[in-house]
Task: structure prediction
Amino acid sequence: MTMLAAILALAAGTYLIRLSGAVLRNRITLTPRAEAVLKAGAVVVLLALAATSTLLVEGAWAGWALPAGVLVGTALAWRKAPLAVVVIAAAATTALLRLAGIA
Amino acid sequence: MPHRILDRLDRGVLRDSAALIAGLFIVGVSFGAVATAEGVPWWQASAMSLFVFAGASQFATLGILAGGGGLLAGVAAGLILNLRHVPYGLAVGDVYWTSLRAKLIGTHLLVDHTAAFALAAGADRGKARRAFWTVGAVLFVMWNAATVIGAFAGRLIADPKAFGLDATLPVILVALVLPSMKDRRTLLAGLLGTAVALGTSAFLPAGIPVLLALVGLVVMWKGAGTGDRAAAA
Result:
């Protein structure tokens, strides 16, 4: 019962959160500058999310294998490699390091 | 409805999002498996994936409830994690703001990776639209299928660390935001924001640090002129 109530509340709340940003955005006229700041805002949040989920797992140091894999993928992306190559290289690096006993 | 969605699919993005599938699939499977291990029936785990569709918050809420943390604490933790969708909606909310049906469905499909793909399309609105709907449709189907599979067979395959698959979701986000980093001020804002998020992660509840990263945007206001010159150069 509690679980169902939680699902309902989380679903409704999450939908409203998702709705709020778009409604606000589509209600006001944006200058190109404001538009650039909003875009940069999402980029900043996404980058911070990627960084925290790479370096920390449940609040503690994630170990070397995961950040190393993401770093290799990032370097390839920087060199304009296709996304599939970026992802496979990142996963392979992380997997091989773990195989070698490096957490 | 299905054929409408199929019309909007983009082959290039479909290929790119194939890279996403493995990473997200294993997370969905592990969500289903964790739910089953905690004694949550499969259909409740599925209902959560269907109606919440936000991985990290699903794990958090489920974990707190299963651990006896109570309804309020569980839902609050999940909602705090999801607050980052507000800046996403502000940035790409125009992409799916067309018909009423598109608005309602698009809102539900706003997640980290749909926002990132739409942003990566840059000023090309048609491309942003196709990217958003393609990735959104693929992720929604995958996430829900993975949850069901995980609930029944999760113990066999549920380790997200297997094959380094936990590296896929963050590296895709980085690859998608990299082109935006060519703008020097966005790069500075990103680096400053990331430093703030990492520095505060140790003592703030999950979800708040990535929002505090928005502090990095101060560099967008300071010295606007130099940034414009840099962009023009």
